[in-house]
Amino acid sequence: MKILIVGAGLSGAVMARQLAQAGHHITVLESRSHIAGNCHTERCPDTGVLVHVYGPHIFHTGDAGVWDYVTKFARFVPYRHQVRATAQGQVYTLPINLHTINQFFGKTFDPAQARAFIEDTQARREITDPQSFEEQALRMVGPALYEAFLAGYTEKQWGCSPADLPAAILKRLPMRFDYNDNYFAHPFQGMPEQGYTPMVAAILDHPGIDVHLNTPYTAQAAAKADHLIWTGPLDGYFDAKLGRLGYRTLDFDRFTVQGDYQGCAVMNYPDRDLPYTRITEHKHFAPWETHEASVLYRETPRACGVEDTPYYPIRLLNDKALLSEYEALAAAETGVTFLGRLGTYRYLDMDVTIREALDAAAGFTPA
Of 47, 102, 202, 243, which has the fewest Cβ atoms less than 10 A away? Predict the structure, then answer.
């Protein structure tokens, strides 16, 4: 069977590989000049630093099957992601942990004391069923920590009040009553030694796969295939005829310095008086390498325009209502599979993206 896949990111690449191994003939169309989607990496020609071109991507998972899959296509090096925050004139550890609490309040609590202090003197205990991000934060950490670390950052990231965001966004972020500063808790964590793009290239390296870069999707190309797998924006498939789904995009202010600029991979800036949310220092994403110079990005979120790269689906009430309409249109399509972060309008970590592509390929039954 001839299958056309739109998009050479993780979803498209994994689907292409699995279906090619099942004997199908795969054509992949990618409108960009490179594969790997937003996890694309490349070497800076001036510094030699491996740069995460569309912002940092850290691979972490509890899915042993996904870990086994990616390690077949790249050598992964252990990597422990640690984040710091410059807030109110001081540098703190994130996620909020025992060190953060003691430093912020000027205390020397042990874990039990810190837990009791937050619950008894900080947390808004009258909030019994948090519905919004703000309510969840106030119930979990209280107003002081919320204002210092979460409120301003969230407003800048999402372009709206935290009171308008669902509580589920914050539930992904832990608060710890020990000194563990590992940002992720998954058992499998690491970085592909040579970057994500060579890994995706290895996934696509199969005689049954034909990849075309700088090639947008056309109806004529789809007409030549027996089945279409769409990993582009869901509303884009329908030419946004019902309206555009909302995304946040990122502006990257890239700069280079000699030496080490901030001493860590990610420094958050939650204070409202700064427009950017964080600075990423890319050489720290590959701590096994040594570079005299450094490449950094200041990240400033904003509303996503038609020509911008979509990063984060907003999924507020209006977006969810519009999404339901597009999902109904998608369900009525025949000969098309919608897949991935853009194709399903969800925020997906890389491991979940890969798992869903593997499962979709295993259950592939074209109309």
Answer: 243
